[in-house]
Amino acid sequence: MTVQTRSDQPCDKSDIRAVILIPAYGQPALTAETLHSAIGQQCDFPFAVVVVNDGCPVPETHEICQNFAASYPGKVFYLSKANKGLSAARNSGLEFSLRAFPALEAVFFLDCDNHIGPHLLRRLVHALRAGDNHAGWVYTDVDKFGFASFSDMSGPYSSLEHLFRSFCEAGSMVSRRMLDTGARFDEAMLKGVEDWDFWLQGLSMGYHGIHVPNAGFHYRRRGESMLTEAERDIAPILDYIRKKHTSLYSIQAVQEREIKGRARYAVYHPDTRLVRYMTATSDPSAPVVLEEYLRSLLRAAEKPDYGSCPGHLIVLEQNTYDLLSDMKLLAGVFWILECALQQAASTSCTIDVRTAVDVSLAWTSADLPRADKLSVPFPSQPVHVWAVEAGALLAEQFPEGGFAFGNHWHTVKPFGSRHFTLEIGAPNVAQIDASPIASDAFTALSSTLATVAEQGSRSFWHSVPYDRYRAQAASPRDYYPEFFRLYSSLPVMQAGNAIAFVLDRAEHDDIAKATQLAISVRAHGLVPHLLCFGSTFVGPSADLDVFAEIISLPLPSLGNHSDLTQNYMGTDLPLLDGRDRQAALGTLAAFSKVVSVRGRVLHLLAGALRKLGVRTWAFIEDVKAGATNAAVAGSAFEQAYDTIFPETVDVLHLCRAIGYPAGKLRVWEEHFPTRTITTAMHNFQQTADVFS
Amino acid sequence: MISASSKLLSTLFSGGPKIVVVRTEACNEDISLPDLPVEWLTTTTADGNVFRFSEDDEPAFPVEMPPSNVLAVWVPHSHPSIDALKQWWERASGTSRGPVFVHGDATHLIGAVAGQTLRENNRLTRMNQTLLEDLAALREGLAHHVRVPPELEVLLKNLRAAPPRLIFETPFFSSAASVTGAIIQPLLTGARGILGVDLHVSNAGLGTGHLLVKLQVPSSGLELAQWRIPYSETFPGWLALRLPAVSARMDSIVELAVEPHGDGQPPELTCSPAGLMNEYAFIGSDITRNMLRMRMWGGFPGLSYQSPSSDTSFSPAVVKISDHLVAAAQTTRPLTWAYPYFNYLGAGRLLLRPLKVNPASSARIYLPALPGLAALNCMVKIDDALCTTKMLVRLAASLPGRNIDEVEDGTAALAVTEWTELSEPIRTFDLRLALPSVVSEPIELHLFSRLPEGGKLDHGKVVFGGLEATLNERVAFSHLPYLPQTDTASS
């Protein structure tokens, strides 16, 4: 390989390994500085500088580019084209580089008012070479000059963070493999932020970024620039990007990254002093000791490492965890506590397990007012589960909190704490047990946090005034509200195959019906979940085996004393207040399909769920009390459903008579046949098809 | 409009001057090229609409932009037509400053290129003249017109008069290890404002070797300073390394490289756990997750703290008392009030309300050993614009664990100030406590506040802040500071 100590020597074009691509428009004096820093690279491989004049009307831009190209023939290549915007200029440079330099490995994008240090190209290329086959690009810290400041882009690359925060500058290096896959700048994006879109293309192609600390990228920060212009129009630009990258920004895709990163809950067992990280309860991390978790929490407040520390802490003994897991209640309980934390600074749950013939659940809750001071007290009475946001935990220990923001959100929540009592009835109760959290566990947690803080010199490091903009624990609050207008969503493993059967009441015959439907879908590769909007639940244990998870979500709006109801053509329908609606939507948002079974609450949500990409189905039964009410209630929301499944021919006729579009009416058994289709069923489907 | 083979692509867009010769595909006639210092490119066309740059029938791909730095497009024969090419060239390049398009023999071409060259020469002459005038205007502006506002000059004068400041000190643990090998220690600050670094030696070196310490910029490899310390001159304690003047460079990231050279036993440098921040641990040693025990000193960029009459650089140094030490302050008297009378307010500020009870409200701040501690000072104010009562405040210093009443009356204090009257609200008052002799061991700084006797007020809002310690560096070091051995880029 050619060793280059100075860059002004022409290279063998067939061996050029890297290109510095500079789109030029305006500010010719600054362009000269940029070109000067580009040709000053000290590399151990041949490289070239490609400058693309994007039809700049200022003649000096052409003159400077031309002069540099003429002065460094074979090193600086000059392309002049009609003005079509920054993206088009970069794309022209990319096409030229890919064609002209067959050995090209990488392209570094350098805007015409920035500088680079002499070792930047070498360090980034070496980092790219050391990366895996999915290494798509390399980025470095941004040392801003002009208005001086330093942007800390450090820490491992987090694709989850990249969805909501642009921390890879345009001044980064893209790999040849990513370009060969077709990544190009979006020429329709003329108002900026096209660099974020470009890296998101790489992400959607399966590539990831690599951070190289302090490689020497100097970004000129001025009062007015394309960036400040873009910041003014940021809302429509972000909207454009998210609609364009639907494969990244669907709720299932976002949640899949969150689940993979195990970024939502830190689950601590005081009896074993072990902590597991998880988003989906069925996919926990290997356990770490408490001290390691607390260290990651304290570190999360100091340096960027998004996703390494979950934003919620849930405390429960190991046997309580096992009990809830065995009963398939774990995900639901964690989700209910997370929903409670939207309104309360902390939340806790007491679990009372009793012997019963059937599986039963009964939730009650009580709220405590907000404390005047900033503290989040540990529970004073025995509880089985306690949950808090990581920021509140830090704020309880340290007056100023710890994170750059989000330490004291608990002080603006309506309640100081919410305490649940969960009565669980189950057969074979002698074999199951749930222990309350030991009374000294919280004191031990607090003292361990203090010890870890002292050992890590936390107070010292926290007093150092470095950039903490990206230092935070991962929280659904960072992206769900912005992407989906939800606080969060229930984590669902393999959401693409997950189907939720939704009940308003969960009693024997309701669960039996849902179970019957669930069995039929399971044979077709779907994973059924049972979801009940109510505070009570009673069902035979055997029926529940078919479900992957059982979630019983108590919604105060649906309580006995609620006066939130509405009436549609003589049929009563429930209403949900804003908080309950958010919780219910978040519970269902990640499923690929939801089925309303003998329920009306889902009617209120189906439209919003469809907008989130969830397939919405309603099953209308021929019950003894008559299907009319169910059919009428459903008709008020028919537009929100993708498909309606009448149970019988009579119900089918009824639905048509009420005005359901025939094309939406389908027969369940045709969709999910569990045995040979009978003549009657066949006729039923034909009847349905006639009208579709 | 044009296409080119991949092989020719880089030639088309390289910066050297070019002349494009256009010929029809059917034309086999040799063309005599004039002797001009340019690169000759040949393009062929069948119909005057598509022009192809390639050699030996290589595949050609469409190119969206015309080649760069083309002086002329020359058609030596009467065919083909290049009108379409001319229009496309102007449109695709986004500029009207394109080449000249010439039909005819070499004489025509030379004439056109000569004209083009003369115009270019005129343009460059004008450009150079403009540049000279720009530089002259810039120099003139620097000489006569650029003025710092007088207020800023006063401020700068005060800053220049201020002593150097301790800007960073590694937290120290008594169980610390030590290191002798070559290491690189990242620093927490950028280059601007650095005056020097103190390294702590736990065991002196032996032999004829020397320790080389370099202050350098990792992103560019630039060396800002280099100190050379013979092993024989090292001894346990602080080793002071100073720049001749405070660095004015803008590099955001700097690091310290420490290398033992020569024969003998290098000195052992004291380490300290990096705690939460392993990115600030040194690299290159078997000892991991540790950083050097060190102190960094800062000052006004460009200023030299060296005395003109001496080659040493001793001067008093001011140390901000870290926020985390202030945040750990405690009250020293069991006073009670309906609401908190004492609290840490953040940013190194303490609330200490005087109460209508005797004795005075009091609090203490534990200060770890500061070598050569000579004085303590702070700012204090009544943080209530409506308050008209004059309140009283006092500072005292004592060794740890002394009786608070005896500290207040001075019998158990190293030093105590008089009661200072805060005569008006909001205004900031400076309190300074000078120690009768320098102290290099841990002490407690005591804060007192009380109401005047006989007043009606039950309490007042007194806030202490801006706590600083003044160190006498002459006492702090038992050896003169080292200066870089070579000229550096530090200023």
UniProtKB/TrEMBL annotation, chain A:
Gene3D superfamilies according to UniProt: Spore Coat Polysaccharide Biosynthesis Protein SpsA, Chain A
InterPro entries: Glyco_trans_2-like (IPR001173), Nucleotide-diphossugar_trans (IPR029044)
Gene Ontology MF terms: hexosyltransferase activity
Record-annotated Glycosyltransferase 2-like domain positions: 20-138
Alphabetical list of CDD domains matching this protein: Glyco_tranf_GTA_type
Coiled coil region boundaries: none
Domain of life: Bacteria
UniProt protein name: Glycosyltransferase 2-like domain-containing protein
